[in-house]
Specification:
With 300 residues, this protein is an alpha/beta fold. Helices cover 34% and strands 12% of the residues. It contains 11 helices and 11 strands. Strands 5-4-3-10-9 form a 5-stranded parallel sheet. Strands 1-2 form a two-stranded antiparallel sheet. The chain binds zinc ion (ZN). The site of zinc ion (ZN) has 7 residues, from loops.
């Protein structure tokens, strides 16, 4: 019997068995928030400014705590209490039936922005007329709202990557809700839309987290090709390694797949511009890959 009702990705299991941990890269907190805190959000939350890295939980009438799936909390890499039926991606690379993790056309996706480096990547994508998908952080949206809007204006799809890049399976239900609601509010205040697509930081997701993400109407997006570009700052991975792996993946998967990259720092953006040349101009956005809508709602 398949307890999990899910797929375990071969490639990812392979990586897991080699003791790789799925890591990720979040930019350092530098610039202060510049996006004004909207009056509607003051009216709703009673606050007057954007929160810090631990945003407050604000109850929402469409989020039902009693409908959240039960699963033990775990910190990143501590998987002994995690069972198959929890369908953890970070522990056993488990994919739920409604997770998006690949694409009929090999396509890049970008996490952790917007940053001051994002525009370099936008210019490269424009050269090839590529429309891509950016999973942004709330704390970055309120620091770089013009970069966020420029990314939208150039036709890319904006998805949520939480408010402040926490490893969600280690958080309480209320803390996870706070990470999602503040992310969504920052996207609403910046881009006047509500996101459909969600990517968990560090790939940290199980059926408890999924059951919260779904209540927001969002859909979980993973990947089947990790560039490990966050390692570029270490001595363990060079840009040439990334480019070689992408070339090999493209051949092995016959031009299908979804690539994880980051527009977080200059090294990852520089690598991404070269990956653009390898993957080529025929790339799809996540909604096109999945056959879904761009946003839950767009406000005029
Ligand atoms: Zn990330």
């Amino acid at each position: 019997m398949n307890l999990c009702q899910c797929i375990i990705l071969d490639r990812m299991v392979d990586l897991y068995q080699k003791n790789y941990h799925i890591e990720d890269l979040a930019p350092p907190a530098t610039a202060a928030a510049v996006l004004p805190f909207p009056q509607w959000l003051t009216d709703f939350t009673g606050l007057k400014e954007w929160p810090g890295f631990d945003p407050p939980y604000i109850p929402l009438d469409f989020i039902h705590l009693d409908k959240i799936v039960d699963a033990p909390l775990h910190v990143q890499g501590s998987c002994t209490a995690v069972k198959l039926e929890h369908c953890s991606f970070d522990c056993i690379n488990c994919i739920a039936p409604d997770d998006v993790y690949s694409c009929p056309v090999l396509s890049q996706t970008f996490d952790d922005g917007p940053t001051q480096f994002t525009t370099t990547l936008l210019n490269k994508l424009d050269e090839k007329s590529i429309k891509s998908t950016f999973f942004t952080l709330g704390v970055q949206n309120v620091k770089y709202p013009e970069v966020y809007r420029e990314t939208m204006r150039r036709g890319h799809i904006m998805g949520s990557h939480t408010w402040s890049h926490k490893f969600l399976p280690s958080l309480t239900n209320e803390q996870i809700i706070a990470q999602l609601e503040w992310s969504i509010w920052s996207m609403n205040a910046t881009g006047h839309h509500l996101p459909k697509w969600f990517r968990p930081p560090f790939g940290g997701i199980d059926n408890r987290v999924r059951s919260i993400v779904r209540q927001f109407g969002m859909q979980n997006v993973l990947w089947d090709m990790d560039t490990f570009d966050w390692k570029l700052g270490t001595n363990t991975r060079k840009e040439a390694d990334i480019l070689k792996d992408v070339r090999e993946f493209k051949v092995k998967k016959s031009g299908k797949g979804m690539i994880l990259e980051h527009d977080a720092v200059s090294a990852t953006v520089n690598a991404a511009t070269k990956v653009v040349d390898i993957v080529g101009s025929n790339q799809w956005t996540v909604p096109k890959c999945a056959g879904g809508i761009d946003y839950i709602k767009v406000f005029a």
